[in-house]
Structure formats: structure tokens, C-alpha cells
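Predict the 3D structure for this chain.
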Amino acid sequence: MKHNQAPENEQQDTVKIGLISISDRASQGIYIDEGLPALKNWLGAAISNPSLFEERLIPDERATITKAITELVDEHHCHLVLTTGGTGPSRRDVTPEATLDAGTREMPGFGEQMRQISLHFVPTAILSRQTAVLREIPGHAALVINLPGQPKAIQETLEGLKNAEGKSIVPGIFAAVPYCIDLIGGPYIQTNEAFIKAFRPKSALKVKAQ
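Done. Predicted structure below.
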């Protein structure tokens, strides 16, 4: 688990985040998993709230993936669950199906935007089947998002694309995550705006205490 300290002068809600890396070979110890460290490093830089991480490294097995998602939401009460790996067209890539099995409502816009971002780099982005869902249980709900397997692609889809002057060309998906968590009753996630700026309508912004 990783705990980010909030600034002393600002009370912030703790965010519980589940991270799932899905790989047959990494889960067997054949090579070192890079997905979990990449996710933790990025989120540690992006989120200013105190954060608690629950991590899983599991094989490409549909029932195993679904079980990991449901446990992270139902038992650990994670507000956000991010998976990495297993979203391609090969027969062992079953992460989207397992995610849909765990979800109560689909959020297809996240997958659509990730493919738009990745298409700026590789034409094979259209082969990605990444999606997102909400998992809702009595008294709690979470957002679950499938991310790519490579650290560079993870960063690109979360951050989006910027030009040489630093202006956003294609928004990254994480800009929409905090407001989505608001809408499903989760904590008010604040980001380090120099790194990535969350988008909320003006009516949803919290006014900082003077």
C-alpha cells in the first residue's frame, strides 16, 4: 500500500484505489511486472489526496479477473479500480469480458477515448477492446477502467496528448475520473494541476476554506 500525505492546511478525503495487472507470464514470475509500478507512480504524481492502494497480479483468467474486481470493490471498498493488460484480440485476452461480468453499468466513453489517443501513435490501437464499468452495491460504488499493458501507453491514455507548448491536443481519460467518482458518491478527488487538471462543471467545484 502507498499513502500520499495531504497538505497540512487542507483536509482531503482518502481515496482507495485497486490496481490489477493481468498477465500469465508475470503472474508466474517469468518476467517482472511493470504495470503495477507504472500505475502507482503515475497516480502518486497525479492525485493530491491521501491514497491507499490494493494491488493484484493475476493471470489471464476470466473468472479470476472478475473475482479480483468484485473483491476490491465489495470487500476493500475501492472507489477506483484500474486494470492493465489483457485487452487485445488474442484468445487469452479476456479482461474486457471479465470487467463487464463484474460491472452493473458500462461506461464505454473511456475505451473510445483511449483508442482515439493511441491512434495518434499506432494504427493497431483499433485492436484494443478496453472498456470501463461501474460496479454498484448497496452503499458503495466504484469506477473500473481497463488500461493498456505497456507503461508508456498507460501514461499516454491517462494524460492525453500535448503539443510542444504544453497545450492539450487530445484530453486524457483521467481528467474525467474525479467528477465521475463524485457522481457515484465517492470522495472528492483533487489532482496536482501542474501534472493533470481534473474537469468539473462549476457547480460541482468545492470552494476552498479561507
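The chain has one domain: 15-204.
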